[in-house]
Design brief:
Layout lengths: L7 H17 L6 H25 L3 H30 L5 H7 L1 H12 L11 E2 L9 E2 L4 H26 L7 H22 L11 H17 L8 H7 L6 E6 L4 E4 L1 H7 L10 H4 L3 H11 L6 E5 L6 E12 L5 E10 L1 H15 L9 H17 L5 E8 L2 H8 L1 H18 L5 E6 L2 E7 L3 H16 L3 E2 L5 E2 L3 E7 L10 H18 L6 E4 L1
Parallel strand pairs: 13-14
Antiparallel strand pairs: 1-2, 3-4, 3-7, 5-6, 6-7, 8-10, 8-13, 9-10, 11-12
Helix pairs in contact: 1-2, 1-8, 2-3, 2-8, 3-5, 3-6, 6-7, 7-8, 15-16, 16-17
Length: about 525
């Protein structure tokens, strides 16, 4: 071995690679970090063995160093491909990798175990000492030129092509990163290609090893400055970009780091807002909800949002979770906005079906009894207030069904219910108890006001006409029973008993005024 000042470029390159290995060693538990370590170790092996080759003075030692170099040279394209596929989020099997490794394995088998001349190279000779380095011509054979070299360049070309293809499809935020990845692979590939074609600043000296450190520095800058090997951006592109849920990534200061297309559609926040505070670009209900949920002040995480493109009001569920590094330190947060409009509407329909009579769109018997008991309990706690009930029954409703059919009967019930709704106050409680029986609960209503309400209902019902299929217009009459807590002691009554009193009064009115039009009885 001899010392030559010209080898400093390779020594510096080896030093850089060693430094990078020490840095990336902390990421070795990640698959992406593991893949990068393989690349760095192969690059270091090539650089060190090449440095030893050009400083060695004996032919056997130079040949030995060349054999070590080709361990790295043969497998480096696959190491590049491994990083690219990992970066892009592609899944590959062991069988696929073993298949790709067949040619590099055969190359090294020929190099190490077959005597020269062989398929890979012929006799090696010194090229002379006209330059500071004692260089050698290896007389490569057909395996090198027609198998090994084409295979290596094809693998590198595939890696570059995959990155270029993704460059035009990836989120704009990550395009500079992809461009740097392309540059990192292209620089050593082109340097090696020029060497193989005979273009090198110093004949027989391959400077690819020297530029490898530059490429690896570019990769580290492109990937690790944002911890992108912890959160693979290309996996993000494949999954998050196509999610129906909106996704917003925030840092600790609530600055927007990323947002997917669904998130942009929901919130109106565009990728141009990346780097700005969420409160600056989205100061309304969305920011307020995120602030409350993240601080734990509010457990309610469903928000109505008007979609700009359709003006449709949709319900979105906000989910907030922290992003932590491998040490458990919080580095940011992810907000997911899930469209739960259908689910919310379905819940409302089920909820409505549980309390609403489907035919008349009024409260059903169960809900009337529940609300009535609550009102009665309130009156018991506040004796100075009053409550009244009106029970209503449609006279001779069975005759209508028998004469005109159930379709007309249903229409009578619907029109009756609609007329009653218009005759009472918005906060009065109106519902169908069953068949043609209805009840109205009148909170804070005296007996006198309840009687006035009953008369108003009778007047409006008497004016009502329902058309039939044979173009007849039929009129109906009703019987009402009116009872008030002002007249009946309720302290020991439950609502069923209170309602039964109104029911008895209703039947009293029905018997007293049979066939003589609508009437009511109060007590």
């Amino acid at each position: 071995m001899i010392y030559l000042p010209e080898i400093w470029i390779f020594i510096i390159s080896a030093g850089i690679l060693l430094a990078l290995i020490s840095v990336i060693w902390k990421k070795r538990y990640l698959y992406s970090g593991h893949a990068f370590l393989i690349l760095l170790c192969l690059a270091l092996l090539w650089t060190v063995s090449f440095t030893l080759e050009i400083t060695a003075q004996t032919l056997p030692l130079k040949v030995l160093m060349v054999k070590f170099q080709f361990i790295a040279i043969a497998f480096l394209p696959l190491a590049w491909l491994n990083i690219v596929l990992d970066y892009l989020g592609y899944i590959r099997s062991k069988t696929q990798w073993l298949t790709l490794m067949i040619i590099p394995i055969i190359t090294n088998t020929i190099l190490w175990f077959f005597p020269r001349p062989n398929w890979f190279w012929g006799e090696v000779i010194f090229t002379g000492d006209s330059i500071p380095f004692a260089t050698i011509d290896y007389h490569y054979g057909f395996w090198f030129y027609f198998v090994h070299a084409p295979y290596s360049y094809i693998i590198m070309l595939v890696s570059i092509s995959l990155l270029i293809r993704r460059f035009f499809r990836i989120h704009a935020v990550y395009r500079p990163q992809v461009a740097m990845m392309i540059a990192a692979i292209t620089i050593p590939s082109m340097t090696d290609l020029f060497y193989v074609l005979g273009y090198s600043p110093i004949p027989y000296i391959n400077f690819t090893t020297a530029v490898f450190s530059l490429s690896c520095l570019i990769i580290v800058w492109a990937l690790y400055r944002h911890n992108f090997l912890d959160l693979l951006p290309m996996a993000r592109d494949a999954v998050i970009e196509n999610m129906d849920d909106g996704v917003i990534v925030l840092d600790l200061k609530k600055r927007i780091l990323d947002i997917n297309p669904a998130g942009t559609k929901i919130t109106g926040i565009t990728c141009q807002c990346v780097g700005r505070l969420l409160s600056e670009v989205c100061p309304g209900v969305i920011n307020h909800t995120i602030e409350e949920i993240s601080s734990g002040k509010n457990k309610k995480n469903k928000v109505d949002i008007t979609m700009k493109d359709t003006n449709e009001v949709c319900v979105f569920e906000f989910r907030f979770s922290y992003i932590k590094n491998q040490l458990g330190q919080v580095k940011g947060s992810i907000v997911t906005l899930r469209d739960c409009t259908e689910e919310f509407n379905l819940f409302k329909r089920i909820q409505k079906q549980a309390i609403i009579d489907s035919l008349t769109e009024t409260f059903n018997r169960k809900h009337i009894l529940e609300l009535g008991q609550k009102e009665l309990n309130r009156i018991k706690r506040n004796p100075e207030t009053q409550i009244s009930i009106i029970m209503i029954d449609l006279d001779k409703f069975k005759n209508i069904n028998d004469m005109y059919g159930h379709a007309v009967g249903d229409q009578v019930l619907k029109d009756f219910a609609e007329t009653c709704k218009k005759s009472i106050r918005p906060y009065d409680i109106f519902g169908r108890l069953g068949g043609d029986e209805f009840a109205i609960i009148l909170p804070n209503t005296s007996s006198k006001d309840a009687v006035a309400a009953a008369k108003r209902i009778i007047k409006n019902i008497d004016q009502m006409r329902i058309p039939t299929l044979n173009e007849e217009n039929i009129a109906i009459t009703i019987s009402l029973g009116v009872v008030s807590s002002q007249e009946v002691p309720i302290i020991n009554l439950d609502f069923d008993e209170f309602l039964n009193i109104a029911d008895q009064l209703m039947y009293k009115a029905k018997k007293r005024e049979a066939h003589q039009g609508s009437s009511f009885s109060s007590g």
